[in-house]
Prior knowledge:
Layout (H helix, E strand, L loop, with lengths): L9 H8 L3 H16 L14 H13 L4 H14 L2
Amino acid sequence: MKKTLQYFSSDSLKRCATMTPDQIIDFLENYRLLVIQTPEKCQLISMKIEPSLLKVFKQKALLENIPYQSKIKQLMKAWVKDR
Length: 83
């Protein structure tokens, strides 16, 4: 199994210093689940997005041959892992 090494910015470390023990445990558990990619049921969410942005995003995802919702998930995972 490949081990993940997480780097934190100084801003991130400052925010972490203000977290409660329960918040730290929740974060670590959620991160662990994300990294080991345990299959879990997706949660339906609702977002307000400008129609022009959504149209362009869908078109770009289509050009990359990937469903736009899958692309949103990829971007979210990459953003979380980079923090």
